[in-house]
Amino acid sequence: MSTNVVPGGQKAANTPSNNVALVFGAAFALRLGLLNLPAFPSILADQVEISTPITSFKRLSEGVFLFRNGVPPYDGGVFHQAPLLLGLFYLIINSPPLVNALYILVDLAIGYMLLQITAIKERDSTSEKKIMQYGDKTEESGMSGLTVASLYLFNPFTIVSCIGKSTILFSNMAVVAGIWMGMKRNKGLAMFSIALATYLSFYPAMLMIPVVLMLTRGDIGKQQQKRISVQCGALFLACLISLFLLSFVLVDSWSFFSGVYGTILAVTDLTPNLGLLWYFFIEMFDHFRSFFLIVFQLHVFIFAVPVSIKLWKYPLFVSFILCAIMGTFKGYPSIGDAALYLGLLPLSSEIFKYMRYTFLVVNLFLYSSLLAPIFWYLWVYVGSGNANFFYAIGLVYGIGEIILMIDTTFAICRRDFEILSPPETSGDPASLGWDREVVQK
Amino acid sequence: MRPRAILKHLTITTVIGAFITSVLAASVTTDTSTENVEGFFNKTRSGHTNNWAVLVCTSRFWFNYRHIANTLAMYRTVKRLGIPDSNIIMMLADDVACNSRNIFPATVYNNRGRYLDLYGENVEVDYRGYEVTVENFIRLLTGRVAKETPRSKRLLTDDQSNILVYMTGHGGEDFLKFQDAEEISSYDLGDAFQQMYEKKRYNEILFMIDTCQANTMYTKIHSPNILATGSSELSQSSYSHHDDPDIGVAVVDRFTYYVLEVLEKIDMQSKATLKDLFDTYNPKLLYSNPGVRSDLFHRPLDQALLTDFFGNVQNIELTEPKDHSSSTLATEGDSVSTQQVEIGTEVEGPSVLQIQPDHTDNNNTETLHQQQGSKQPHARERVEDHTFEVGDSSQSQNWRYVAFVSLSVVLGGALIAGSSMI
Amino acid sequence: MRPISGQMLLSTGVLLCIASSLSTIADASQQALHVKETVPILKAPEAFHEQLVLKPLNDGGAYSHFQFTTHIGTMMDEEHFDGAASNLFSHYNLFPRSIGQILHSFEVEELHLTFTQGRWQYSDWGYPLAPSVGTGVELWAWLNNNRLQAEGNWRGLTNTLSGLFCASLNFIDDTISIEPKLSFRNEGLYNVHSSKLSPSNTTSTTPRKLRYGSLPHENVCTENLTPWIKLLPCKSKSGIASLLKSHKLFDTRFYSMAIHVRPVCEDDKCKVKSLELVQTITTVFDVARQDGSYDWSLSSLFEREITQACPLASTSNIIVHLPQTTQFDKQYELTPMLPEGRYTIGSDENKQEIAVYDLKKAYSGDTSSSSEPFKLSMQWESSRPKSVQPISPGIVAHRYFTGYGQERGGLSIEIYNNDSQDVEAVLLDTLPWYLKLYLHTFTVHLNDQLLENYRDIVKKMYYQQAVDRARPAVLELALNLPSHSKIKFSISFDKVFLKYTEHPPDANRGFDIGYAVITVPLARQKGQIGYGSVDHLRIYQGRDASLVQSRRLSTQQQEGNDDDNETDKVRIYTETLLLSLPTPDFSMPYNVITLTCTVIALFFGSMFNLMTRNFEVVGSDKTKGKDKEKKDE
């Protein structure tokens, strides 16, 4: 009956902080161990599911090498990553231990940030009305911060993406940092993080909306909300422009625009990946290419506003769903994108009980993850399969992601309905509980 | 006074009279020559002044040797009957003569006895290998070729050209395969011919096709003055004639073989007609039913000569004299008109077409690549140089990096300070 | 009035007649005057020379090298000579008009076009006499760039040459053309636009642009030979060119056919200049294939006979390089053997013995049309070559792919330096854009040991990055090859996944990757017949070997090179390679579009559904009636 009022982050940290240290230590050790295996990291880095043309570490090394030797890295068709990554790796690219340490640190930082976000969310939820489950039983509280962090840190997708040194990790870190700062109501850093994420991989621009929702959540007047929103917009632009200027200072030309964002948007490199676009544009005739390209890129962005309007009360979930949309329909999706949204999903753990197709989704993810490398090998190395094998398993993976998104959206809508019209107000006996039948109209 | 005046008058009248008679004589002679000219351009006559041939082999790979042999046999026939190389466009999708599988290098034979080397010493292949595509073929017919296309790859016909279009390869119902990768449909062909008709690019066309289900390819043609013949009907295949055990593959197709049998017997002066050719079609020998479509052809078939299409016998065309003043004041001995005699020589086509018709779309200035279909921005001249020396990192690089690091530190500090304030 | 009118009529008529005739005369004379205005100031003789060089190879094959040189006639003095704009190309006598028009309209100063079939075996046959022996078609030209229209001119040049030679040269476009920085320097004996050689030259130094392109998969056949023969003054009717029979020429182990056009000097001081067109055919006959015997004769090789020298030729020679035997002299017998036509150049290891047969002299007395065919044959003792001095070429290069699978691979180039000295070489490698090179994986192995710091061997490295569907990758290295060593360069690459329409019709065959070119200076003794550029081929003309040497020395001195020995720049060509790229399923375009769009529509529909519809409670079993509550959001 008595709800456990969690006074805040400190309390969460006090409850066994050894656990936290244990979890993070184990994650650190695991990654360190795997990275130091002789051939494993390079095998993973070569897999197309893990590294795409815009996140590949091999291409980053090539870019840094060219940059160090006086050849403009954006003059050719190999390097398509943001110039700040060149700056980041300029000094450390030749020493593997430092690079490994950087990746491990970034991964752990994301885990830590998820921990903090959960703490803030728990603090917020104490002031909310609790949902009754069956009569007088209140809803169970959501997952603890440690669970969320460990779900992220020990997710095989995350580990594999870290070992493969995919640079999507930095974009993921910027996204999670933006969400954290948004929850902490720190406008400047939140907008900077989102600007950084946009700068690195362009699609997180639409995450600005949920972050603004986070910044203006709670009991704040409309005027104040508008003011904050406008301030955030200006901050976002200012940060983005300063990032571009910084890049110009580094590479001394503006050609990185077409090299980075041109490739991201125009999908010029058709290396296969777990997305839906590569085979489509391989088989497409040139005549229709621009039309479908524009449609597909628009498709990624058009859900931002409607979802945010409908689910404005749940900005954490909105950020999850937008990351999932990004991770499914962007030009070059990879396992790293899946790691991001699967890490954000436990932040809305209350909706799990309303999900209907969990078993199906888990199976689809499992099947596609196991079969994709096999079909790839059959096509590209053995020659006994053809491109359709890998394309089909990419479709299965996409369907898995889509069912996950639809199911979770259904779940949050259902939960929203539950909050707004609990059984007692609708005249139903309270014993009906939260799983009464509803229908969509 | 009087006799002088009379003399004067007499001289004047004689001069004027002579002048008038000369003019009349000139006109009379032109009249008679006009009659001769009209005799050339009877309704029963073709009305063409030059001949062109477009010979297309659309098959690739060694086992389609016979298609190349078919086309080369046709090439040799039209050359023998007078059409010069400059008026023949030959498209061969593969090279079998110098193929490493050919044990008789630089030769192509279309019979087992290897009596005649079709390749010979003097052969001109205009489109070869990967250049033989549907796009190039249709561009060739309609004249919408790229600006840089050389003269030997253009079909420079006018409204008095008779064109022989011969195609061979693998086909099916309403389509013909190009190089096993793409197809041309009968609708495309009909449209191409209609464009040619609208642009007045032909006088008459003989369209001959030797593939499986060939007759379906000419069912969608709807332009006048086109006579079409094919080797087999719908749902029938065309067969090869025989093979050569030394070369290892079939060397000629049945339809072409029997058509060549007829053509080998005629020469430049022959009066054999197309009806004679079509009468020799024997489904029992061909194992298929060849067909003829003559509803679009205005002349009766028994008056259309074989050499109207396969040869280059031309009539003389008299044109208007260029300079009117000189003709009226010239004496009778002067030239009446400038005669343009076009007989099958090495000279390129009629002088009317010195200007190369440039029918490229303004939007479509891409060069004719074929499988490497890249669009190049022609308007932009490439001035920059993209070759760089790979050396040790220069000093300026390091300085730039230092500037970058310091600037980023400054901006980061400003951000953190600012965010705590806001 | 009457007399006036009559007289007027008569007089006007006469006047008009006179006027018209005068006008026509004036017209004609004006045209004549037009021509006479631009009379050349200096004149150099037009000349045509033909040679055939025969050389038995180590393994018994017969190497034949046809060479036809034509010089164009009228010249101007220095101030007016501009190959592009002068009326150099208004009067053609021996020089073929088709080539002249091409040079004129596309402002080409130097042109080199080669068609090759087969691969030159350096280890067995040594260096070839022809400068370019890379498989496929090679085209490179120096274009005058004064109006920045080099791109348009290059495109026009490739298309026009494709029409002239019946080859698919129009495929040489921006995705294949490159501009090498160190290789393929111009071979003209003087630089038209340079101020160095002629101090009185007041013309500005107009820049010139080098464009190079090659098609490794282009095949050569009779339709390419036919227009080539038509460029010769005598065609194949008389003279040495009458030996050119396609059935035998294409039945060889190696066949290469080329035209080289470049500006040359006619005298020592380069006062008189001319344009030189050199046409060469190089073949290696597999002599023993017919009956196991290594004896050959002109008729057995070519199945044709020479019955007279070309009347338009100034010189007409057949030159035989006599094989150097290690043991005794009478290993072979060459008939006819003319004692006065035999020369020995060099000494010991580099000894060259050549026998020269002058056809002009042989047929000078004969004016009748029927004359005896020229007979030349070589018989070996017991029909096999024995104890022939082995050829050891100084530099040998090979290139091959490494790795497996259709996703990535590696490229390795091995260069063997068998000389006893260090050699400075330039390596040029062009890789198409569908190979993404990783320059940071570039490694150098010296004698199979990895070099950490390869700056001793690779002096300079120039790199042009490939851009998808726009430019190829170019790697040009200035090397210093140590003596008696093997150097291996390796680099790894990723294979690009091409679009459906970018695959050729026979997609599973793969793509041909063109050769790498290594330019090596080769020293030779004074007066010897060397290899490499077109320069030394003039020596066969017998006329101005000394002229070539003096010009070369003067240019070398101007460049600061004071060697006594002369050096040729030999180009060594590696093999072409075949690369298989992963192919999509070509039967699937509509299926793919349908399936992908279905998946996306599945998401869109469901999401739209969820966004726009609200929940309602369905009546439970326990309550009667329906409780419906709609919540407005």
UniProtKB/TrEMBL annotation, chain A:
It is a multi-pass membrane protein. GO terms for biological process: attachment of GPI anchor to protein; GPI anchor biosynthetic process. The chain crosses the membrane at residues 20-37, 78-95, 162-183, 189-216, 228-250, 256-279, 291-312, 318-345, 357-377, 389-413. GO terms for cellular component: GPI-anchor transamidase complex. It is found in: Endoplasmic reticulum membrane. Keywords: Endoplasmic reticulum, GPI-anchor biosynthesis, Membrane, Transmembrane, Transmembrane helix. Pathway: Glycolipid biosynthesis; glycosylphosphatidylinositol-anchor biosynthesis. Coiled coil: none annotated. Belongs to the PIGU family. This is GPI transamidase subunit PIG-U.
Automatic annotation (TrEMBL), chain B:
The keyword Signal applies. One of its GO terms (biological process) is attachment of GPI anchor to protein. Pfam families: Peptidase_C13. Pathway: Glycolipid biosynthesis; glycosylphosphatidylinositol-anchor biosynthesis. It comes from the Eukaryota. Residues 362-375 have a biased composition (Polar residues). Keywords: GPI-anchor biosynthesis, Signal. Residues 354-391 are annotated as: Disordered. Residues 1-25 form the signal peptide. Gene3D superfamilies: 3.40.50.1460. InterPro entries: GPI_transamidase, Peptidase_C13. GO terms for molecular function: GPI-anchor transamidase activity. Belongs to the peptidase C13 family. This is Peptidase C13 family-domain-containing protein.
From TrEMBL, chain C:
It comes from the Eukaryota. The chain crosses the membrane at residues 588-610. GO terms for cellular component: GPI-anchor transamidase complex. Residues 1-28 form the signal peptide. Keywords: Membrane, Signal, Transmembrane, Transmembrane helix. One of its GO terms (biological process) is attachment of GPI anchor to protein. InterPro entries: PIG-T (IPR007245). It holds the Pfam family Gpi16. This is GPI transamidase component PIG-T. It comes from Lobosporangium transversale. The lineage of its organism: Eukaryota, Fungi, Fungi incertae sedis, Mucoromycota, Mortierellomycotina.
